[in-house]
């Protein structure tokens, strides 16, 4: 059996991989893949990393020296991979789509929570406080949502918003043909939308797409949703805009410096990221720990497609999901 090193393992990862696996011996490591842990891959023919593992040139070099032949990402985003360092040395495969519904539905959940202040109501009623003061929201019906990135997740989110009777404006450098919603330039989207939701990948072009300048162009009192990647948003600019009311609320499933904190219980740590601490303390922020993907269906599909990617590699078949 081929030995495979599986990094940053959580109990919910193992369930489906163990259930569907027939061909591989997994070495499950709870550690993230980093320059310090790369030696754990020694003797393994493949590694399975996740979104916050480090795949820089040092790690890729270490993997190649350890005899690893393929990197099988168990996620769709691959902004954490130094593709140049891997080029021509080791193939990288990923799971391009496993449940766009999981992420799109969660995004709407963040919006509903923020807008109708369900997070506040939940704590109030537990404390036997049944007052409604301060819980006024607004109808989403007829509001305009701006969707940045109309790939698999963006399209499902648009359908959900249309189901709510919302108006949609979209921006994507590669617009869909025959879309049943209008595309507009980014500036127009920023200026005209009541809600802005990010569904694009993190690239050199999209890094800090939401910054002081783009925030200044938005309507006063806009809601910002980010279930894509933390670095799409300049966190300090967001924090200032939340403080001065330019942005009325933010639903965040990702954070630009999340690697050290997300997916882990850090409740006993004294060393806390200042901006993250401020964001979680704000009543108009709902922040979750990169959870949008976490459904049974998504976990099943992630395991299934990752195993298929490995099978294709070891059988010398075409790698459908290769990123380089
Ligand atoms: P996709 O590849 O199907 O679609 C991405 C879309 O973004 C494409 O249409 C592309 O043309 C567009 N795009 C590229 N650069 C852009 C830019 N600068 N501005 C606007 N649009 C741009 O990807 P999919 O599956 O829809 O996923 C979107 C993102 O969601 C992923 O890149 C990933 O970062 C994030 N994600 C988050 C998860 C979570 O648990 N929070 C889980 C899965 C994905």
What's the structural blueprint in terms of helices and strands?
Elements: E1 2-6, H1 11-20, E2 24-28, E3 46-48, H2 57-65, E4 70-72, H3 83-86, E5 92-93, H4 100-116, H5 118-126, E6 144-148, H6 152-163, E7 167-171, H7 186-192, E8 195-198, H8 212-216, E9 222-226, H9 235-243, E10 247-252, H10 274-281, E11 285-287, H11 296-314
Parallel strand pairs: 1-2, 1-3, 3-4, 4-5, 6-7, 6-8, 8-9, 9-10, 10-11
Helix pairs in contact: 1-11, 4-6
Helix and strand element order: EHEEHEHEHHEHEHEHEHEHEH
CATH class designation of the largest domain: Alpha Beta
In CATH terms, the superfamily of the largest domain is: NAD(P)-binding Rossmann-like Domain
Major sheet summary line = 6 strands, parallel
How much of the sequence lies in strands comes to 5-15%
Question: Can you tell me the overall shape?
Answer: globular
Number of domains as seen in the coordinates: 2
Trace the largest sheet across and list its strands. Answer: 7-6-8-9-10-11
CATH topology of the largest domain: Rossmann fold
If you had to describe this structure to a student in words, what would you say it looks like?
- By secondary structure, the chain is an alpha/beta fold.
- The chain folds into two domains: about 1-100 and about 295-315, NAD(P)-binding Rossmann-like Domain (Rossmann fold), CATH 3.40.50; about 100-285, 3-Layer(aba) Sandwich (Rossmann fold), CATH 3.40.50.720.
- About 35% of the residues lie in helices and about 15% in strands.
- The chain has eleven helices and eleven strands.
- The protein has helices at about 10-20, 55-65, 85, 100-115, 120-125, 150-165, 185-190, 210-215, 235-245, 275-280, 295-315, and strands spanning about 1-5, 25-30, 45-50, 70, 90-95, 145-150, 165-170, 195-200, 220-225, 245-250, 285.
- A six-stranded parallel sheet has the order 7-6-8-9-10-11, sandwiched between helices. A five-stranded parallel sheet has the order 2-1-3-4-5, covered by helices on one side.
- Helix 1 packs across helix 11 and helix 4 packs across helix 6 (about 150-165).
- The chain is globular and about 60 Å long.
- The mean pLDDT is about 95.
- 1,4-dihydronicotinamide adenine dinucleotide binds near residues 254 and 293.
């Amino acid at each position: 059996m081929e030995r495979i090193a599986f990094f940053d393992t959580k109990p919910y990862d193992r369930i489906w991989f163990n259930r569907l696996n027939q061909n591989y011996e997994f070495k499950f490591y709870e550690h993230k893949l980093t320059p310090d842990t790369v030696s754990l891959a020694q003797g393994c023919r493949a590694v399975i990393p996740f979104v916050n593992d480090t795949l820089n040139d040092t790690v890729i070099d270490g993997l190649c020296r350890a005899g690893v032949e393929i990197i099988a990402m168990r996620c769709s985003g691959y902004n954490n991979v130094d593709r140049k360092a891997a080029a021509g040395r080791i193939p990288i495969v990923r799971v391009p789509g496993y449940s766009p519904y999981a992420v799109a539905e969660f995004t709407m959940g963040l919006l509903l929570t923020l807008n109708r202040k369900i997070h506040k109501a939940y704590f109030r009623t537990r404390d036997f406080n049944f007052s409604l003061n301060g819980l006024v929201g607004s109808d989403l019906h007829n509001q305009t949502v701006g969707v940045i990135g109309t790939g698999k997740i963006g399209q499902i989110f648009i359908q959900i918003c249309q189901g709510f009777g919302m108006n949609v404006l979209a921006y994507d450098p590669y617009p869909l043909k025959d879309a049943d919603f209008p595309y507009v330039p980014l500036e127009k989207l920023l200026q005209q939308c009541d809600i802005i939701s990010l569904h694009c990948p993190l690239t050199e072009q999209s890094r800090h797409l939401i910054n002081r300048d783009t925030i200044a162009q938005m309507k006063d009192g806009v809601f910002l949703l980010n279930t894509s990647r933390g670095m799409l948003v300049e966190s300090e600019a967001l924090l200032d805009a939340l403080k001065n009311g330019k942005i009325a609320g933010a639903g965040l499933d990702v954070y630009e410096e999340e690697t050290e904190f997300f997916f882990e219980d850090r409740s006993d740590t004294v060393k806390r990221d200042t901006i993250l601490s401020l964001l979680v303390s704000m009543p108009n922020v709902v922040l979750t720990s990169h959870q949008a993907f976490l459904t049974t269906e998504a976990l099943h599909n992630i395991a299934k497609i990752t195993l298929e990617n490995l099978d294709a590699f070891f059988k010398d078949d075409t790698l459908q999901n290769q990123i380089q």
